[in-house]
Amino acid sequence: MTEFNSSEDTRIQQGTHYDENQIQVLEGLEAVRKRPGMYIGSTDARGLHHCVYEIVDNSVDEALAGFCTSVWVTLHGDGSVSVRDDGRGFPVGLHPKMHRPAVEVCLTVLHAGGKFGGEGYNISGGLHGVGASVVNALSRHLRVEVRQNGHIYEQEYTLGKIDYDLRVIGDTEETGTTVRFWPDIRSAENPGGVFDPGITFSFDTLKNRLREMAFLNKGIRIELRDERGDEPQSRVFHYEGGLKEFVRHLNKNKEVLFDEPIYVEGEKNGVFVEVALQYNDSYQENIYAFANNVLTPDGGTHLMGFNSALTRAVNDYGRKYRILKEADANLKGEDTRESLSAVISVKLHEPQFEGQTKSKLGNSEVRPIVDSLVYDKLEQFLEENPQVARAILDRCLGAARAREAARKARDLTRRKNVLESGGLPGKLADCSEKDPAKCEIFIVEGDSAGGSAKTGRDRHYQAILPLRGKILNVEKTRLDKILVNQEIKNMITAFGCGIGEEFSIDKLRYHRIVCMTDADVDGAHIRILMLTFFYRYMPELIKQGYVYSAMPPLYKVTVGKNETYVYDDEALQKKLDEIGRDKKPEIQRYKGLGEMSSEQLWQTTMNPETRTMKQFTLADAISADEIFTLLMGDRVEPRKEFIEQNSTLVTDLDL
Q1: 376 flagged as catalytic
Q2: Of 331, 338, 321, whose CA–CA distance to 383 is shortest?
Q3: Residue 5 belongs to a domain
Q4: Same domain, 44 and 167
Q5: Hey, which end of the chain has fewer CB within 10 Å, N or C?
Q6: Per residue in 144-185, pLDDT tens?
Q7: Residue 508's CATH number
Q8: Structure letter (DSSP) for residue 545
């Protein structure tokens, strides 16, 4: 059993008083099944996994309060998932207002929980109090088991309504809660289901999130087990180093400037702050900010405090030791954050999130607290490590010079655009439609395929931009070099939305950006180069769902006058089995898009009525960053190992 102490850890030790009097009721549960997206974001795979996170969050809240050390998450063969912990267990006494067992109230009444006041929890991620009750409402069936007071209590629910009263089913010396639920997935047998048909729990998706939770709460042990299939698999996440190990994980495929991440920990006025940071050899900024274990992708006051402290500390050190001369301008924030991996985690009693999505932290008191703690630690670190400090300053100065060169390159591009052909690339065959929502642009490999695409397209809404070979690998290059690359300049100009700080999604000229490359390894490489550029410098394109991959056929099978296009070797074999041995089909393998006539390219790859396209999404930014670094970075051995382990997936990799 691990002992948690607030002087050694950011966990908050609470009093042991936690019973039915801490459960406060705000309103009922009527609207959840009618409007599930309001509560879990969507009814697709993302929303399905969110249900697991809501239950796990309850267990982690117990850990934050100092009463839980382990969480077990199990994917069962019948489609259900269970979450078990060794915390105090849901209260089972009668609620003073509802006159029903408190555990039942928590699972059947919206906004009922121990997180709205009283002494139940001081710090919690799920402050809306909708987690357990929403999961219950969206489950075909749910069973809760509470180990408390020497007994094992049980209650079951169907579509959010109780099947029977809370009952004792055994005795135990253990404490904790187990929630097992069967999500209400729509199907032919269950047409009234909530979740989209055919979706299932993903071991990898849950693995990434649970690993993140273990990083953010040092000392907690989270085990994920998948009992589906013939070979069960499991992973255990337990990190005594917390955020320091998180940053090491972010930098695992990169060379670092110093061995041990800088670590900041402190508390002021009830705000607990943890920060870990480490510079590496990339040219990217890789910073993640959390508030009460909730990722805030749009930042907020905790991130503002960190950025301010970092910029001030680096500039002050540079001035003090005259690395920055009197004539030099101060380094900007973006200069000090290039090549940096960092995680900021704050925990506070009443966080103010923007909306249900919790994408941004608004508490004004957090900024000066983070600023002060981080500045003091960075100032001390730089003074005590002069060689590392000089390496960091040199890195930041290089970023500043590249920023200035990039500004000049942008200015030069603007001047040329005013003078040359209306500002659009000469190779772009634009469409006549002006509504971006109706327009799509095909980024095509080579002039030959570009010619076929231009001839075969629908000129009203389809634009074609041919590229000459493989574009620059932006993972290994600073922005100033990127902006002088002609192929990348053509894409930036054609899209119209700018790049970096000047990016504006409202100026985007096409809402479907289609990577159309050959159906071979070279084509896959060109596609990943384009995706790396979009992810690093125009990530909003992927977040908004505007980036696609065309799916051209690999073979044409002809039997008499009948022609069939197939897209991979497996489909080819299936087609040949259908044809049978008596007939002798003619099989044409396309080496590239340029081998197709304009009519064939239109019919197989560009016609909305017959084509297949893959949309790229950004469900997990941390995993996406890891994949891009691994595939496109400088380190060869991790990439070689990945290819050996995933050789069948490399050319069909989803973000």
Answers
A1: no
A2: 321
A3: no
A4: yes
A5: N
A6: 999 999 999 999 999 999 999 999 999 999 999 999 999 999
A7: 3.40.50.670
A8: T
